[in-house]
Amino acid sequence: MRTLTAAPTPSPRTGPAALLLAAAALLGACTHKVQVLSDPPGAEVVIGRKSVGVTPVQLEVKPWKLGTREVKVKAVGRRTASFKVPLFKRKSTHELVLVRKHGPSGTWEPEDAEQ
Fold this sequence. Notes:
The chain is of the alpha+beta class. 17% of the residues lie in helices and 35% in strands. The protein has one domain: Sandwich (Immunoglobulin-like), CATH 2.60.40.3070. It has helices at residues 16-29, 110-114, and strands spanning 32-39, 44-47, 50-54, 57-61, 69-74, 81-85, 91-97. The chain has a four-stranded antiparallel β-sheet with strand order 3-2-5-6, with no helix packed on it. A three-stranded mixed β-sheet has the order 4-1-7, with no helix packed on it. The protein is elongated and about 60 Å long.
């Protein structure tokens, strides 16, 4: 009498590595549409160390390290402003007022920043 044994069927991967691969695939395809406006217009928009445009600008930002991306807005003679793009948001608009550079706290009046 002959005994037949069935070959084991491979089970799907359900461990942590499989979950990380699935999350990476999903996040890699997602982008966040960011509109950046500044007063005054014409400020440089920087993500990381890379200049990505001049305001007003609309960007597509990819998520990074399961967290947020910091966007900096710079203009000559103005203080640098920044904001964070959240991971799971699909679209946002950021309006920044870039104030003039001035001395340390206590050496200027609020009107100086508005000039």
